[in-house]
């Protein structure tokens, strides 16, 4: 069940770049996308909780961690990735971003004492290599600000897996998701208001695209990810999550008319075979 939750979250996350690209095509700024995305997701989440009468439990000794994570780690990861895109080609940024499962593996061993065997390390490298081939080309060396930014994004993404895995020992996924959404919405809406780059005067197709990425990328996918992280080691969850670029590339081919190269096809095969082998092996 944990594997299924992570794979479903990766599939839903894979839709977000396509929908965000649609919003960008109408001239919507990244900050507007982020502010609306988190605000819509937070309203839907807490509105659903109120309508359904769901009672969420927030132990006092554990509530501070997701609040801090929601106002620091999550916004930093997203902002640093957007900053990297300003200096690096999208393919290069994606290549470096999908190295994060390797960081999750060593961080999980250091901070959570989740051991990983050498043969499992080899399998992880195969999957990450496949994700890199799917994502793009060899990174462009020389754009130092972009390389620094994508390094921060990669490390903070790995830290998200580790921090979430640790938090879920004390909290259930539902309350964690609620806190992260509320905190993220507060940060991005405040940033948009303070900078004057937050606009609601958007074309209907752009609004629909942002609504889609809010539901899929900020509401459902993270909740599934947290559910998977509650029962799976962080390294295994990160490995399964590398199916996300495969989904994004397939959608770009079917929806946006992108062409698949031989290298990308090989990368998709490596990711899918690696994930299949990880699934049939014993849990990490």
Automatic annotation (TrEMBL):
GO terms for cellular component: membrane. The keyword Transmembrane helix applies. Gene3D superfamilies: 1.10.3730.20. The lineage of its organism: Bacteria, Bacillati, Candidatus Sysuimicrobiota, Candidatus Sysuimicrobiia, Candidatus Sysuimicrobiales. This is DMT family transporter. Residues 1-134, 145-277 form the EamA domain. It comes from the Bacteria. The chain crosses the membrane at residues 35-56, 63-87, 93-112, 121-140, 146-164, 171-194, 206-225, 237-256, 262-280. Belongs to the EamA transporter family. InterPro entries: EamA_dom, EmrE-like. Keywords: Membrane, Transmembrane, Transmembrane helix.
């Amino acid at each position: 069940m944990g594997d299924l939750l992570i794979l479903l979250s990766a599939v839903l996350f894979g839709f977000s770049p396509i929908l965000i690209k649609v919003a960008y095509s109408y001239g919507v700024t990244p900050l507007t996308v982020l502010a609306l995305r988190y605000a819509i997701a937070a309203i839907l989440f807490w509105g659903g909780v109120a309508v359904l009468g769901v009672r969420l439990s927030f132990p006092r000794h554990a509530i501070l961690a997701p609040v801090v994570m929601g106002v620091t780690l999550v916004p930093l990861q997203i902002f640093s990735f957007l900053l990297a895109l300003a200096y690096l080609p999208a393919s290069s940024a994606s290549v470096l971003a999908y190295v994060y499962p390797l960081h999750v593996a060593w961080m999980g061993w250091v901070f959570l004492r989740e051991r990983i065997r050498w043969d499992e390390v080899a399998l992880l490298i195969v999957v990450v290599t496949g994700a890199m081939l799917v994502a793009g080309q060899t990174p462009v060396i020389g754009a130092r600000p972009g390389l620094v930014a994508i390094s921060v994004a990669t490390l903070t993404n790995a830290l998200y897996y580790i921090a979430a895995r640790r938090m879920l020992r004390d909290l259930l996924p539902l309350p964690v998701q609620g806190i992260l959404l509320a905190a993220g919405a507060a940060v991005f809406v405040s940033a948009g208001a303070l900078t004057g780059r937050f606009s609601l005067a958007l074309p209907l197709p752009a609004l629909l695209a942002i609504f889609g990425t809010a539901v899929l990328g900020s509401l459902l996918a993270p909740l599934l990810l947290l559910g998977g992280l509650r029962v799976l080691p962080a390294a295994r969850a990160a490995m399964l999550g590398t199916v996300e670029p495969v989904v994004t590339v397939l959608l770009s081919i079917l929806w946006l008319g992108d062409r698949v190269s031989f290298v990308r096809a090989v990368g998709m095969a490596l990711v899918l075979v690696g994930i299949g082998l990880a699934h049939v092996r014993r849990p990490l």
